[in-house]
Amino acid sequence: MSNRMWGGRFAEGPDAIMEEINASIDYDRKLYRQDIAGSKAHVAMLAAQGIVTADDAATITQGLDTILSEIEAGEFTFSRALEDIHMNIEARLAELVGPAAGRLHTARSRNDQVATDFRLWVRDTMDTLEEQLTELMQALAERADQHAGDVMPGFTHLQSAQPVTFGHHLLAYVEMFSRDRSRVRDARKRMNECPLGSAALAGTSFPIDRKATASALGFDRPMANSLDGVSDRDFIIEALADASICAMHLSRLAEEIVIWCSAQFGFIKLSDKFSTGSSIMPQKKNPDAAELVRAKTGRIYGSLQALLVMMKGLPLAYSKDMQEDKEQAFDGLASISLALAAMTGMVRDLEPVTKTMKKAAGSGYSTATDLADWLVRVLGMPFRNAHHVTGRIVAIAVEQGIELHKVSLAEMQAVEPKITDEIFSVLSVDKSVRSRTSYGGTSPVNVRKQARRWLKDLAKA
Ligand code: ARG
User: Fold this and answer.
1) Residue ranges of the Argininosuccinate lyase C-terminal domain (predicted)?
2) Distance (Å) of CA 246 to CA 37, 191, 339, 454
């Protein structure tokens, strides 16, 4: 049998393979709430404009409400023969309310319908992401405040560089996630325009009121060009690009968690709640959640890439290619959401081993820069010379297999006679971090101030 919705000119029904490649109901049923909201706004507008009668509009609206409760109660039968969520709902509406149902699709096409539904769905998802980012930042800032003065090694090239504080390190991520959050907010603002009323591509001859439907659905305004309205998917691509950048940040923190909780580092203990054991090695406690957060990045980048390629070179306006946007978007955005939730849980529960961190902070000649700075500050030496003198002292320490503060004064004076024993006062890691008071630097006073400022701002967000 040919399709009831569009099969007038068709003599035959679809091949089984056609049905399989064409049907999107298995995944786009997720859009049922948005589809019903869009239809209700549309029919209310049609009635207000005198395009359908108030009676028909009321009948249709009631039918749509019934369908909503059927779906939510799990009592709705989805059919692949009806392709997608839009036609499944409309067909059920016809069963429920009879011929009035056929008036709902006046001045509308599935092309503007799906574009509207999907924008609504992505918009809701962006709102959830924004909240999740706020929660993660809150968790990080709380831990930063608690550990503003706890020293850890700072790395460049994953080699000991200079001591920093654990709080400072965590606040670096707060800054990154705050930029992610502002990208999400920005994208949401840009996408909040309504395609409904674009119809198939050219607009419609019916006297519709696009401002009314746009505002009923919480959009800022109708999209200004009907061809653009039905044919762009940049809003979802932008959402996935924002998710990708955020996933990249998450993956760096996840990687650090994996490194930090290894026995060789021992900087943190992960809570049992976010770890797993091994079926063969009884001693194991593995950071699986962190590893999976790191791994989700690949899926999220993958969905962004898939949609960029799918959209590339598509002529205007709608093409069925665009139906492929949904699974990727659902998967990419569900993945970032899960990754954010897991990371927030890990950050809340992790236990820094401050003694180990501090000990590590003092190894690897990490206060060599402090020594060089002392030569500049106290002896008035140009920094380049100070760098060279310090390098020679480090070489002595390396040769003797000792830490920098264990090199004797006599040996330092053999390199630079003007050095006094005051030098030893700058070689401790605590002194080192306390001295880094420049704006944005790692001194505990700075870090505490920044953490509190964030906590205050985030409480308002
Ligand atoms: N299921 C379709 C999609 O997601 C809805 C739009 C179909 N429009 C069409 N002209 N066949 O893209």
Assistant:
1) 365-433
2) 30, 19, 10, 19
Going by pLDDT thresholds of 50, 70 and 90, the confidence category of residue 1 is low
Mean pLDDT, to the nearest integer, of 114-125? 98
The number of the ligand 1 atom at minimal distance from the alpha carbon of 84 is: 1
CA–CA distance, 149 with 151 (Å, rounded to integer): 6
For residue 243 the two structure tokens come to: 């998710």
Q: What is the whole-number distance in angstroms between the Cα of residue 112 and the centre of ligand 1?
A: 9
Kindly calculate the radius of gyration of the chain based on its CA atoms and give it in whole angstroms. 31
The tally of CA atoms less than 13 A away on the side-chain side of residue 70 is 17
* Distance between Cα 287 and ligand 1 center (Å): 43
Q: Which CATH class, in words, describes the domain spanning 110-359?
A: mainly alpha
Predicted confidence band of residue 340 (pLDDT cuts 50, 70, 90): very high
- Look at ligand 1, atom 3, and give the residue with the nearest C-alpha: 323
Q: What is the CATH number of domain 16-103?
A: 1.10.275.10
pLDDT at 313: 98
For ligand 1, atom 2, which residue shows the shortest CA distance? Answer: 323
